[in-house]
Design a protein that fits this description.
A hairpin with a 4-residue loop joins strand 4 and strand 5. The chain contains two helices and five strands. The longest helix has 7 residues. By secondary structure, the protein is mainly β. The radius of gyration is 16 Å and the shape is elongated. The mean pLDDT is about 90. It has one domain. A five-stranded antiparallel sheet has the order 1-2-3-4-5.
């Protein structure tokens, strides 16, 4: 099962950096063993400042911030201190 999550990696009074990560885990069960596999991969970086908010993919190209906000509901709460910044 693969999901996206947001992790605040830096914050001060002037800006915030949020890492968007893909989390994927699987398990296999065969008697008598159970194996778990997992990986976390970076997907995007969100930069929030008083005058701007934007997302970059891992190749430093602009990413769709609105799509990330739809996929990760808690992202709006994380970016709340910078809500007046244009997208």
């Amino acid at each position: 099962m693969e999901t996206l999550r947001a992790s605040e990696i830096f914050s001060d009074s002037r800006c915030m950096l949020i890492a968007i990560e893909s989390v994927d885990f699987r398990y296999d069960k065969s008697d008598p063993l159970c194996r778990m596999h997992g990986k976390i991969e970076p997907v995007a970086l969100i930069v929030c400042a008083p005058d701007t908010r934007y997302a970059l993919d891992m190749q430093a190209r602009p990413a769709a911030l609105d799509l990330l906000r739809q996929a990760i509901p808690e992202l709006d709460a994380m970016m709340a201190p910078f809500n007046n910044a244009p997208i």
